[in-house]
TrEMBL record:
Domain MATH stretches: 1-80
Pathway: Protein modification; protein ubiquitination
Family annotation (InterPro entries): BACK_BPM_SPOP, BPM1-6, BTB/POZ_dom, MATH/TRAF_dom, SKP1/BTB/POZ_sf, TRAF-like
Highest taxon in the source lineage: Eukaryota
UniProt cross-references to Pfam families, sorted A to Z: BACK_BPM_SPOP (PF24570), BTB (PF00651), MATH_2 (PF22486)
GO BP term, pick one: protein ubiquitination
Organism: Panicum miliaceum (Proso millet)
Protein name: BTB domain-containing protein
Gene3D superfamilies: 1.25.40.420, Apoptosis, Tumor Necrosis Factor Receptor Associated Protein 2, Chain A (2.60.210.10), Potassium Channel Kv1.1, Chain A (3.30.710.10)
Family membership noted in the UniProt record: Belongs to the Tdpoz family.
Cited SMART domains: BTB
Signal peptide: none
Length: 281
């Protein structure tokens, strides 16, 4: 071979490291070293190689002439710097925390919502970003850009406060003070609010809450709610709950059944038809 090759190889498997290395040649007579080449590379399991270097480092004839190769001996110094990838801890995303702090601090608020006897302040641009309804109301072609106060009808203050909490923090507020039935009722009100303002993720989370709390006493009322607010997953869950173990007679004796008959007569007829068929089987 006419050339001398030099390579570095990573020995430990499944390791990842960023490597910076300099090659220096040592003169056989003087012992002085000179810089020749500098390389940088990342070794990891995704790459198809475990070594990296120069297949044509220098010609043998040049090394002999310059006094670096003598009696088949060549001395190379390597200055090596290894930075293990992952040693720098990156904190988790804090955007949601920052937005929540913005809501709590009330810094820069520019719109007020009046809900019954209570008032809630917020940021127009953030609301418009998160809620399609507010995008149209606050920034649409027919909107009043100078409007600073909005009256919210047909909603309890606690529900609107929970809606705002979700808008800024992408999660529900703590509701530890509510008992089981109150928690379920709050879930229904939040579902209505989510549907009203186009918060699809919040709406699905409310559906999940109500789905996990279905009972013979509540399923009829929940089914009506699901039908009215186009909650297909919750509606299917209610129907499966009624169909399972043939609960239709027990559901018919519940308080919410009369409302189910009035609000969803076709659906009620289908439930009885399915029940009759299952009994024949």
């Amino acid at each position: 071979m006419d050339y001398v090759a030099t390579f570095l190889e990573i020995i430990n498997e499944n390791n990842e490291a960023s490597v910076h290395f300099n090659f220096r040649l040592v003169h056989q007579d003087t012992g002085q070293s000179v810089f020749v080449s500098s390389l940088r590379n990342v070794f990891n399991e995704k790459t198809s190689f475990t070594c990296w270097g120069l297949p044509k480092f220098m010609k043998k004839s040049d090394l002999v002439t310059l006094g670096y190769l003598k009696d088949d001996c060549l001395e190379i110094e390597c200055d090596l710097t290894v930075i293990k990838v992952g040693e720098i801890d990156v904190p988790p995303p804090d955007l949601v925390q920052n937005l929540g702090d913005l809501l709590e601090s009330q810094v820069g608020v520019d719109v007020t919502f009046k809900v019954k006897e209570e008032a809630f302040q917020a940021h127009r641009i953030l609301l418009a970003t998160r809620l399609p309804v507010f995008m149209a109301e606050l920034y649409g072609p027919l909107s009043d850009k100078r409007k600073r106060s909005i009256v919210v009808e047909d909603m309890a203050p606690r529900v609107f406060k929970a809606l705002l909490h979700f808008v800024y923090k992408d999660r529900f507020p703590a509701m530890d003070d509510l008992d089981g039935s109150e928690y379920e009722e709050m879930g229904k009100h939040m579902l209505v609010a989510a549907d009203r303002y186009g918060m699809e993720r919040m709406k699905l989370m409310c559906e999940s809450i109500l789905c996990n709390r279905l009972s013979v006493e509540t399923v009829a009322a929940t089914l009506v709610l699901a039908d009215q607010h186009h909650c297909s997953k919750l509606k299917d869950a209610c129907i499966r709950f009624i169909d399972s173990s043939n609960r239709i007679d027990d559901v018919a004796a519940s308080q919410g059944y009369e409302n189910l008959k009035r609000a969803c007569p076709v659906l009620t007829a289908e439930l009885w038809e399915k029940s009759a068929k299952s009994r024949k089987l």
